[in-house]
Every structure is written in structure tokens, then in C-alpha cells.
Amino acid sequence: MIGNTHKKHLNIVLILALLLPFLTGCWDRTEIETRANILGIAIDVSEDNQQMHESEVNHMTGIFPEPNKKLIQITAQIAVPGRIPLGPESGSNGSQKPVWLVSTVGHTLDDAILNLQQEIADRLFFGHLRVIIVSNEVARKGLGDLNDYLRRNPEVRRTAWMIISNGRASKVMESSPQLERIPTLYLSAMMENAVSLGKFPRAFLGLFWSASSKLGQEPFLPVVEVKRHENTEISGMAYFQGDRMVGVLQPLEIGFYMAVMGIKQGGYSAFTPVPGQPGSVLVRSRSRDAQIDAVLDHGQPKIKLFIHVEADIVEKTKNTRSLNQPGLLKDISAEVSDRGKNTIKNILAMTQKNGSDIFGFGEHVRAKLPDYWNTHIKTKENWRKKFKELDVEINFTTTIRRVGMRLG
Fold first, then answer.
1. How far apart are CA 383 and CA 218, in angstroms?
2. CA–CA gap between residue 269 and residue 198 (Å, rounded)
3. How far apart are CA 355 and CA 7, in angstroms?
4. Coil, strand or helix at 392
5. Any alpha helices (H) in 142-262, and if so which ranges?
6. How far apart are CA 154 and CA 281, in angstroms?
């Protein structure tokens, strides 16, 4: 009897010992109110008069000299605990801003962030960073130093957006869109919706780094511009050579780039003249399909593009006669195909001039013609030279599925 009692007590002790690790709680927890959650960062070249305002946090004159680099300015958007709206906005705290904008300067991104930490009581946290806005002036000089810090920081998510601003990046951060109280969340949602609407290819920070690391491809990023201080529009697509921005595609050119890449969801519209008539029609792409073949032609690599777009006619101008004429839709389709082919030729000419293979043709050559690649190319720098003279054959077809119906 006594032995059974001891055995019972021993079992209870063992059970409690097994449960103990699950009942101790989170010893290393950090409350959200005790850290500064950064939602977005804007990066600009500092203005000349900001040199005198630099803090000596990470360097000391004459002992720990600063790097011989021009200062950059960062503007951080920090969430204010308790003010982030979780539902419909109430009247009591509607005037309180949910974010706090703080600016500082530094010789590098890490230097500027450490200077910023010197001004903020709570520890800076980048786990909720959604948007990184970089001015085109910084982007044209190169993003190598910025990406070095971001790739080393484990808190930075690879699904964050890096965006180029047409002008100062801080102006984008200071904009006040009416549909969202937090500008960075509005900007992030705008990019996500642009992807789903077929207006822009997916271009997360991680995808930018992945393209930068490939031997036969160059990265790209969206370009935005502030309109009337309240709203922001996607004004183009910046393409790079390595980490340096070398050019920009216009919005409609983005649609044709997406056609080359075979991104299914259509989204852009274009006015097209009606053959044999004075008017024009607005043609909207519904879907895109593409095939990229890499072949050897007389010992040299050649790319063959097969692009097909399905489209609708969504509007016609006043001078356009009936669209029910026999063969007219076929003529309009041919006109769209010719203009699309010429647009892609222009995009290729621009990117080839700058040695920026944003199409990833080099990856197709590397995968499908490995002997040629390993013998004649081998490196990314050699592919950039080869891409400038690459022969690309374009086959572009269009099918118009719907012409719509006018009611009344």
C-alpha cells in the first residue's frame, strides 16, 4: 500500500516536471509598446546644409574618421502604439496621427539608422517594415551599400517593397492619401493591387536580390511619383545594371514587358487607330501568353519570342464607324500586333543600349545552351556585353474577343 502511494506521488512529480517547460511563459518576450516599429523608410541624398547637423555617434573627428562619402538622409515612419486604426475611424482620436515621421542623416544606411536610434527611446524594430523608398538620385549612384545592410538585417522581410521615387523619397513618405491614414500601408496596398490588376509584375525586395544574383538577368523596381501632395501614382519601372539604375520604362511599356514575360493577367489599355477610318478604339488586354526559345544561329545565340495577347475593345471614338464590318476586327488585331511588336523593339533597344537584361534572356541561354554559355560567356559581365548585340526575333499576335455593347 505504501509502495503504491510513493509510486503515485512519483508519477505526479514526473507529470509536473514535464508540464513545467510549457507553463513558464515567454521569458524573452518584448511588448509591442516597448519597441519602435518602423513601417517605412525613405532614403535621399542629404541636402548641403544638413552636414552641420550630423551627430558624432559612430565616428569621432581625428580618432575614428567617418567614410569619405556624401551624407544620405533617411525619413522613418514609426507606428505610434494605440493609434493604428483597427476598424472604422472614431471621432475622438481622428486628429491624432497614427505614425511619427523622424529624419536623420548618416554616411551609410546603418550609420543613419544608428543615429536615429540615438534619438528614439525604444529599440528600433524592422519586422513590420513594408516599404523602402529610394530617390532616383540615390538609385542612379547605386544601391549596393543599402542592400548590403538590408540583406544582413534578419528583421527585414523579403516580401517588403523597394520603390524608386521620381523626386525626393521623403515627399512620398509625407504624402497624405485619403483612403488610408498610414501612407506606407497605402503604398504597399497600391503595389499589391497593381500586381493583381495586371499593372505591374511582382517585384518584392527578395526578388530584386534574386535577379541581382543571377548571371543572366538584371533587376527592376517600380517608380512612383507624388501627385498634388495627396496621392501617389506608379509612373514607371526602373531597370538596373547590377545595383545601379540605368533607365525607366513608361507605364504602357510595362504592359508590353509583362507580355514578353508571359504574365497572364492583362491590365493595360491603348488607343489604336482603326485601319481605313479616321477614328480609333481603346483596346484593353485581358490575358497574355509568351514563349521564349534560345537557339544557336550560325554559332551565335538567338532569342525567339512568341507572344499572344487576348484583348477587348472597350471604347471607340466618335469618328469610328461600326465595328461589325467584315474583317475589321482582324485588321484592328493586326494593327495592335504591329504596334505592340514595335514597342517591344523599342524596349529592347533601350535595355540593350544600357546592358540591362531585365527579361532574363541570359538565363534561357544558360539553361538551354549550356555548352555555349560555359565556353563563351561564363560571367555576368560577359553576358552584359553579349546582350547588347543579341538577336531577338519577335512574333506578336492579338485576338480581340469582345467589342462590348452600348445600351440605350
1. 11
2. 11
3. 78
4. strand
5. 144-152, 169-173, 183-196, 205-213, 251-260
6. 51
Give the confidence band of 407 by pLDDT, cuts at 50, 70, 90. Answer: very low
**Residues comprising the chain, all counted:** 408
Residue 164, CA atoms < 13 Å, CB-side half-sphere: 29
**H-assigned helices in 247-327:** 251-260
Q: CA neighbours within 13 Å on the CB side: how many for 283?
A: 27
Distance between CA atoms of 270 and 276, rounded to whole angstroms?
18
One-letter amino acid for residue 80 of the chain: V
CA distance 56 to 53: 10
User: Could you tell me the three cell numbers for 253?
Assistant: 511599356
309: its cell numbers: 495577347
Task: Read off the pLDDT band of 218 (50, 70, 90).
Answer: very high
DSSP 97: -
DSSP H helices in 90-182 = 109-119, 136-141, 144-152, 169-173
User: Exposure of 59 by Cβ count < 10 A (0-12 exposed, 13-18 middle, 19+ buried)?
Assistant: middle
- Average pLDDT of the chain, as a whole number: 88
CB burial class (10 A; 0-12, 13-18, 19+) of residue 47? exposed
CA distance 112 to 119: 11
Instruction: Give dist(CA 44, CA 168) in Å, integer.
Output: 6
pLDDT (tens digit per residue) in 368-378: 999 999 999 99
The structural domains of the chain, ordered by start, are 32-85+94-249 (no CATH), 253-402 (3.30.300.210)
Distances (CA, A) of 67 to 51, 64, 288: 14, 10, 49
Q: Which of 91-95, 101-105, 335-339 has the lowest mean pLDDT?
A: 91-95
Q: What is the pLDDT of residues 113-128, one digit of tens each?
A: 999 999 898 999 999 9
pLDDT for 181? 76
Report the alpha-carbon distance of residue 74 to residue 214 in Å, rounded: 29
Q: Of 334, 325, 212, nearest to 272 (Cα)?
A: 334
Residue type present at position 28: D
Please write the tens of the pLDDT for every residue from 97-106: 888 899 999 8
Of 292, 202, 289, 212, give the one whose Cα is nearest residue 254. 202
One DSSP character per residue, 325-383 reads STTHHHHHHHHHHHHHHHHHHHHHHHHHHTT--TT-HHHHHHHH-HHHIIIII-SHHHH
**pLDDT, mean of residues 389-400:** 97
